[in-house]
Amino acid sequence: MSSTSWLGRVSRLLPAASSKPAADPPDKSGPLQTPLAKECPLARSIAERLDATLRQEGEALSPRLLRRAFEELQAIIDPRVSEVEGGRRAMEVAAGHAAAPLAQRCDLWLLMSEMFVADAQKTREAQARFAAAVGTPDEAVAEVHYRRATVSPRRRLLQRFSVYPQGVQFLVELRAEMLPFLKADGRLMALDVEMEYMFSTWFDVGFLELRRISWDSPASLIEKLIQYEAVHDIKSWADVKNRLDSDRRCYGFFHPRLPGTPLIFVEVALVDEMTEGIMPLLDEQAAAADLGKATTAIFYSISNTQRGLRGVSFGDSLIKRVVETLKDEFPKLKVFATLSPIPGLRNWLGKNAAALLEKLSDKERAVLGQALGSGTPMPARFLAAIEHPQDLQEKSPVRHFLLQCASHYLGQGLKNGQPLDPVARFHLGNGARVERLNWAADPSPKGVKQSYGLMVNYLYDLKRLDKHRAMLAQGKVPVSTEVHDLYI
Q1: DSSP state of 391
Q2: Residue 168, SS3 per DSSP
Q3: Which of 173, 227, 237, 480 has the most CB within a 10 Å radius?
Q4: How high is the pLDDT of residue 27?
Q5: How far apart are CA 24 and CA 72, in angstroms?
């Protein structure tokens, strides 16, 4: 194999106009969408293009160059070469991939997805032997042969990329770049599912190291916190220093192949009671709390850093490990809770306000209508009134109804047995319960835009985590009495 891969060579032969930063989502109006667009009935399969002579409009690589690329991918898993040589060839392709325009990278993904599939005939034969062996002494062996027959060469190809340390990072970044294209072209699904399966093995929590991130950590690591913070943006070095102060803790999961980047990290405040607002925690001028009086650990931000690891779950393990670590360091800690956003509330309420108003009694509707300045409370008038939640008084019927709506959303809003809100889905799936709604907890523009400034505490009662998971499995969201009493 030449030291210059096909991607490096063909990039000089094709227009550079198709190049686009990897992190950008696909632009459906741009020319790069043509070969991946579902609505394009003339888009040829990779197999058809490999057998063709001429390139059609919208195809990045000509059939000749596509065949060359296919040969180089096949060479990576050539059974005659060692793992090391196969890995070297894989990294050669990876280097070319990084330098190539996006349309050419898309062709590489399609090659990996469409052309490295399990042998259909061998799979059918193994399946038939397994079906015939069920209930006989040969069942276990037949099952093993069937499982092996269904393993695609694509898995071996991905494994060869992982031979070198930087290969794992390459694959994670490749999947992150590919994810936005999945809806446009289902042909990529096979590669995506294969990568998710392999990442679930490679990034099993048993291989991850929990590390504390402090102000004494390398600057490059602290910069990663600033870059990847997804809940409450870090605005300055003073801001990040506040989050790493003596009364705070920050922990992340690290993988040996990505040593300088936490895969996920959590920020914790150590306080003397359950926090009801985010602003005191983000106040850079506030004095550090007295750790001797700390009884409560508040998880106020959890951020994943690798989009390419979507579907790989280690957030619940992170929280459990952090709780154990905190209990060892601070035996007085008794309460472990979150202060969480409700990111889906506004959008859901906009669609369901009318139905929720119908649930009110005639008396409640009359009181709310009077507060809104109309005889009958109309959805549009209610939604307009809560656009400025800070103007609503504590005893306002409008404010009370918004809290009722939020309690319904978190405690009764389910789809396929799962909470509607993504953050609720995460914490409730870990065994937490909905403990308390907090008014004006996040008055920032982002907080108001997401949930009219509301935030929620999820309580991790360590003795009832399994009970709460069982309740959720039965379609019942565990909530506190305070939240339950708000139900409409």
Answers
A1: G
A2: helix
A3: 173
A4: 35
A5: 28
d(CA 109, CA 106): 5
Catalytic residue among 407, 427, 451, 468: 427
Looking at 340, 407, 451, 468, which residue is catalytic? 340
User: 6-117+152-202 belongs to which homologous superfamily?
Assistant: Malonyl-CoA decarboxylase, oligemerization domain (1.20.140.90)
SS (H, E, C) 357-421: HHCCCHHHHHHHHHHHCCCCCCHHHHHHHCCCHHHCCCCCHHHHHHHHHHHHHHHCCEECCEECC
Beta-strand ranges (E) seen in 196-312 are 209-212, 248-254, 264-271, 296-304
Does domain 205-338 match CATH 2.40.50.140?
Answer: no
Residue 5: the pLDDT is 53
Confirm if 84 and 13 have CB atoms less than 8 A apart. Answer: no
What is the rounded distance in angstroms from the CA atom of residue 334 to the CA atom of residue 99?
A: 53
Question: Can 6-117+152-202 and 205-338 be said to share one CATH topology?
Answer: no
Active site residue 340: yes
Contacts of 395 (CB under 8 A, 6+ apart): none
Residue range 446-458, pLDDT digits in tens: 999 999 999 999 9
Angle at 394 between CA 390 and CA 398, to 5 degrees: 75
Question: In the structure encoding, which two tokens stand for residue 310, read together?
Answer: 């979507």
Q: What DSSP state is assigned to residue 190?
A: H
Question: Was domain 345-484 assigned CATH 3.40.630.150?
Answer: yes
Contacts of residue 15, Cβ cutoff 8 Å, sequence gap at least 6:
101
> Which parts of the chain sit beneath pLDDT 70?
1-42
The domain limits of the chain are 6-117+152-202, 205-338, 345-484
Q: What are the CB-based long-range contacts (under 8 Å, 24+) for 270-274?
A: 270/294, 270/296, 270/297, 270/298, 270/326, 270/330, 270/333, 271/247, 271/295, 271/296, 271/298, 272/296, 274/298, 274/335, 274/337, 274/435, 274/436, 274/457
- How far is 272 from 268, CA to CA, in rounded Å? 13
Alpha-carbon distance 209 to 56, whole Å?
49
Cα–Cα distance between 317 and 394 in angstroms, integer? 39
Task: State the Cα–Cα distance between residues 329 and 327, nearest whole angstrom.
Answer: 5
Q: Residue 431: which residues within 8 A CB-CB, separation 6 or more?
A: 316, 460, 464, 465, 466, 467, 468, 469
Distance of CA 248 to the CA centre of its chain: 25
Which residue do the tokens 């399609």 mark?
Answer: 110
pLDDT reported for residue 96: 92
